[in-house]
Design brief:
This protein has 116 residues and is mostly helical. It contains 4 helices and no strands. It has a domain of 70 residues.
């Protein structure tokens, strides 16, 4: 690895927080694509990992960056997507409140007759 100018970094044993980013990636890959553990052919695994990489970076929404894809965030679309989502949630809430207020006024219970 040194000949390829790749520095190795090892976290302390038993402390996955030393390398949280890669531990998180491995956890998601293992949970979301469990079939990868069964592949023994390196060529098949390479092709499957490429498909996983594309899905992970361009389709799967990531909680850590506000439920956008890494590709959207990298290309600068993340803030616009989050703002549009927030505005849509506000519109939906206002529409829901208006709907229920309208139904409440339409369904007023009948007044009891006056006992004279």
């Amino acid at each position: 690895m040194a000949m390829c100018a790749i520095a190795q970094h090892f976290g302390r044993p038993g402390t996955p927080t030393d390398q949280a980013w890669i531990e998180s990636l491995f956890s998601h890959v293992k949970a979301d694509w469990p079939h990868l553990d069964q592949i023994r052919d390196p060529a098949v695994l390479r092709a499957e990992l490429e498909a996983v990489r594309v899905e992970y970076n361009t389709i799967r929404l990531h909680a850590g960056i506000g439920y956008v894809t890494p590709d959207d965030e990298h290309e600068g679309r993340g803030p616009q997507i989050r703002n549009a989502r927030r505005a849509g949630m506000h519109r939906a809430r206002r529409a829901r409140i208006a709907y229920h207020r309208q139904r409440r006024t339409q369904r007023q219970p009948p007044k009891p007759p006056d006992a004279d």
